[in-house]
């Protein structure tokens, strides 16, 4: 699916809404001057792009959800690592705060300035450097769009090890920096496993060359892992080496409906048992999610005549033998039916039906934004208790305009809990009914308050719900070591009390 940003009119209405309020500007940071802009212009030379006009800056200042809006006066778009290094070394010297930005599809306010930080966008760093068809190793710059990489690999019989609804806009550097999960994590694992090497520019401009293409390397600490999921707070990822699997030639997608969440889990268990090595995705959505997608996303059709069951699932297999895989899926469906778990089900007969099934599942996020204000939560929970959070939230939040929806990567224990309010604007009483309840509920079950979207600005002060004090303290020390002046993505990820003074 090619993702288009929501029209500015829609997001404009929603801009605000930040749990915990916007942190005050840290006045240790210098303000951008004309001389700074002139320096950036010279550092970029002819290739790069500098954006300083108000209209052009809008897209850099506002996040995809329209919840967060900053006020940068300059976006710097370099084309090379050397340019990134020059810009960062200068900003560090001047104590100018910098926010790294990829495709700006992040959902926690990490990719946009909070105040007047310089935006360093990787959008002009989109070169594919090499691909080895024997090892499946891809080397590229960080600004490559995920979908473009996958199209490139498809022509060479390979696939990207991750896939997500924002693939038409998100960049691989952003994916690595958020440790994005997505719909194929069940099959290919997390980016901590697929990233073989990274090139990172540190806050002082030093280029840290961890750009190896080795499957095995046990020489000391695996430093690249620190930058995977650091959300731009430790360095700017400029290039990488990724292990890409062979592209499956047979993909079977089925869409099922069932009566209860325990039935969803039972079907998941049967899918693992019967589909084993070819299973590539197990996603679920509740009726409220399905209805929202169908109401607000023109062109998406319900794959089933049944639109009243409380739960829907998308089960995908990816393999190399169509007959074998189809047989397996049919056996699996027969087993699900004979266990009395299925209300209805459809197996896609062609790629257009399969892609419609995926659009239903992946369309929920955009549909919610179109419906009104969204309060978005992304939690990891023990499977057995996962959906109880949605049910409890419904009891806490009655009201005609409110719709509580639950969907996500059931195969990974990752629930996307979204509270949609058709009234369209942040309401304090709604926010207070959700937070801190949702975080406490998750902590009580030793879950994670961010399964895959990160902490960004939205949850920086909430890290302790999922991490012990010692871990937070060590994170603060790592930040201080790698970014002593604290210029990289300030106000994000770490709570204010562990961030060192700097500058
Ligand atoms: P941005 O949004 O630009 O940035 C994200 C964070 O990374 C920011 O903190 C930014 O400062 C930092 N950053 C970006 N580039 C760099 C860099 N080169 N170096 C250092 N730091 C950098 N996420 C999932 O995990 N799974 C999903 O299934 C999923 N589905 C989505 C569906 C939709 C419709 C949308 C809108 C979003 C979805 N997301 C999902 C969230 C988002 O797409 C991911 O977090 C994605 O990885 C962000 O990539 P980006 O290039 O847009 O990064
Ligand atoms: C997905 O899985 C994304 O579709 C977005 O992670 C989830 O919108 C959300 O809450
Ligand atoms: Zn997700």
Describe this structure in words.
It is a single chain. This protein folds into three domains: 9-121, Uridine Diphospho-n-acetylenolpyruvylglucosamine Reductase, domain 2 (2-Layer Sandwich), CATH 3.30.43.10; 128-243, Uridine Diphospho-n-acetylenolpyruvylglucosamine Reductase, domain 3; 250-444, Alpha-Beta Plaits, CATH 3.30.70. The protein contains 18 helices and 16 strands. It has helices at residues 8-14, 34-44, 54-61, 81-94, 146-154, 172-178, 185-188, 191-194, 224-227, 261-275, 287-296, 322-338, 351-362, 364-371, 388-396, 428-434, 437-444, 469-482, and strands spanning 49-51, 75-77, 98-101, 118-121, 128-132, 137-141, 195-201, 207-210, 236-243, 250-258, 279-286, 311-319, 344-347, 373-380, 402-409, 414-421. A hairpin with a 4-residue loop joins strand 5 (128-132) and strand 6 (137-141). Helix 11 crosses helix 14 (364-371). It is globular, with a radius of gyration of 23 Å. The chain starts with 7 loop residues before the first helix and ends in a 21-residue tail after the last helix. The model is unreliable at 1-18 (pLDDT under 50). Bound molecules: flavin-adenine dinucleotide, (2R)-2-hydroxypentanedioic acid (2HG) and zinc ion. Zinc ion binds at residues 181, 408-409, 416, 452.
Shape: globular
Fraction of residues in H or I helices: 25-40%
Bound molecule kinds, no repeats = flavin-adenine dinucleotide, (2R)-2-hydroxypentanedioic acid, zinc ion
For the sheet with most strands, the description reads:
7 strands, antiparallel
Strands of the biggest beta sheet: in what spatial order? 13-10-12-11-15-16-14
CATH architecture of the largest domain: 2-Layer Sandwich
Provide the CATH top-level class of the largest domain. Answer: Alpha Beta
GO molecular function: (R)-2-hydroxyglutarate dehydrogenase activity; FAD binding
InterPro entries: FAD-bd_oxidored_4_C (IPR004113), FAD-bd_PCMH (IPR016166), FAD-bd_PCMH-like_sf (IPR036318), FAD-bd_PCMH_sub1 (IPR016167), FAD-bd_PCMH_sub2 (IPR016169), FAD-linked_Oxase-like_C (IPR016164), FAD-oxidored/transferase_4 (IPR051264), Oxid_FAD_bind_N (IPR006094)
Keywords: FAD, Flavoprotein, Oxidoreductase
Enzyme class: oxidoreductase
